[in-house]
């Protein structure tokens, strides 16, 4: 078992400050190590600790993605559950958290910069003016809270910006619902070419960033957590892709 203080200590070791914008990819296994009656309460305690730690000027962001929109063509900002796990879904229901109105890549947000992030471009996934673009411009800190490096969705923003040749634009039309009002939407998504080996493999990127001290690492109990700045992440991907245009994906193993 771990204590609440260990979670706070881990944030300090990752150099997270009270005025930071933090985007957190998380796994419930970290919170499961806390003392408590059930996982739901442990997750609630975890989020409350982090939110309090970031006050008064910080912002906490957690993905609440619903990629099923590409098939169902429907997204309800209030009722559509996050499809990336209990960690994300529990955060979505924390008091004070508001969700962005993007039908595929929505986020839960709480803190000083909440309004700015909720007013981003919702008709594109990763382009100019989107949630990911603002994460870059604000040089937010991305935390892998017990999950793998491959979970960093910000990678797709960088791939779109750099116009990698193994993705292409596709549009998805559908209906978004908020407070019983329906809105038509047509969202641009930089999707993978499924005829190629485009699954992310970020070993080379992670190794480069560790060697350059661009990743902060610690552990909570038995589970490792990492932190990286969005601008460092962007620049290191750009450098890597100049050396190997397939440096982020499985296809590089066929292009030595």
Radius of gyration based on Cα positions: 18 Å
Model regions low in confidence, pLDDT < 50 over at least 5 residues: none
The biggest sheet amounts to: 7 strands, mixed
Mean pLDDT rating: 95
* N→C terminal distance: 45 Å
Count, helices: 10
- Kindly name the structural category: alpha/beta
Order of helices and strands: HEHHEHEHEEHHEHEEHEEH
Helix content: 25-40%
How much of the sequence lies in strands comes to: 15-25%
Number of E-type strands? 10
- Summed up, the domain count is 1
Shape: globular
- Strand order across the biggest sheet? 4-5-2-1-6-10-9
Please describe what this structure looks like.
The chain contains 10 helices and 10 strands. Strand 4 and strand 5 (107-111) form a beta hairpin. The N and C termini lie far apart (45 Å). With 256 residues, it is an alpha/beta fold. It has one domain (4-254). 33% of the residues lie in helices and 24% in strands. Strands 4-5-2-1-6-10-9 form a 7-stranded mixed sheet. It has helices spanning 4-13, 28-31, 39-54, 69-72, 86-92, 114-118, 131-137, 154-162, 203-211, 230-243, and strands spanning 21-26, 59-63, 74-76, 98-99, 107-111, 141-145, 167-178, 181-192, 216-220, 223-229.
Give a quick summary of the entry.
With 256 residues, the protein is of the alpha/beta class.
Describe the secondary structure blueprint for this structure.
Elements: H1 4-13, E1 21-26, H2 28-31, H3 39-54, E2 59-63, H4 69-72, E3 74-76, H5 86-92, E4 98-99, E5 107-111, H6 114-118, H7 131-137, E6 141-145, H8 154-162, E7 167-178, E8 181-192, H9 203-211, E9 216-220, E10 223-229, H10 230-243
Parallel strand pairs: 1-2, 1-6, 3-7
Antiparallel strand pairs: 2-5, 4-5, 6-10, 7-8, 9-10
Helix pairs in contact: 1-3, 8-10, 9-10
């Amino acid at each position: 078992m771990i204590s609440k203080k260990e979670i706070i200590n881990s944030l300090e070791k990752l150099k997270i400050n009270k005025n930071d914008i933090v985007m957190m990819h998380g796994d419930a296994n970290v919170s499961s190590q806390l003392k408590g009656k059930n996982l739901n309460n442990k997750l609630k305690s975890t989020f409350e600790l982090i939110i309090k730690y970031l006050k008064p000027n910080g912002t906490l962001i957690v993905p609440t993605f619903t990629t099923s929109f590409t098939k169902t063509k429907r997204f309800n900002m209030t009722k559509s559950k996050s499809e990336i796990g209990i960690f994300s879904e529990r955060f979505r229901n924390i008091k004070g958290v508001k969700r962005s109105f993007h039908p595929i890549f929505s986020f839960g947000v709480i803190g000083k910069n909440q309004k700015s992030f909720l007013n981003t471009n919702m008709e594109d996934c990763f382009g100019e003016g989107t949630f990911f673009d603002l994460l870059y411009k604000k040089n937010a800190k991305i935390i892998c809270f017990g999950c793998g490096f491959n979970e960093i969705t910000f990678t797709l923003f960088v791939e779109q910006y750099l116009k990698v040749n193994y993705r292409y634009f596709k549009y998805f039309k559908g209906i978004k619902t908020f407070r019983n009002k329906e809105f038509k939407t047509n969202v641009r998504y930089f999707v993978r070419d499924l005829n190629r080996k485009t699954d992310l493999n970020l070993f080379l990127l992670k190794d480069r960033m560790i060697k350059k001290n661009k990743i902060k690492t610690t552990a909570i109990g038995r589970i490792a957590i990492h932190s990286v700045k969005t601008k460092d992440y962007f620049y290191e991907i750009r450098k890597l892709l100049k050396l190997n245009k397939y440096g982020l994906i499985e296809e590089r193993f066929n292009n030595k």
